[in-house]
Amino acid sequence: MEATERRRAAAERVRTAEDAVEQLREGLAEFGVKLPSLRIDPVSCAGDEPAPLVDLGRCNIDTALRLCEVLAEKESGHDG
Known about the structure:
Layout lengths: L2 H27 L9 E2 L13 E2 L5 H16 L4
Antiparallel strand pairs: 1-2
């Protein structure tokens, strides 16, 4: 693979990760959940061939409990 092709592939991986972060942000917001630190891990994007990781971030106990509620509602078939 040429350097140009590798750069394009790397850029596409980062764009895909950015899209995933946005979809997660929007999807969680529908259930009243906001993860303040939701982002792409910048270190995972370093180098010539980045392997972006989505950092779901740190959240307070209220947010963690809300996530548990949402998951329980979805599991039981109730959309909250």
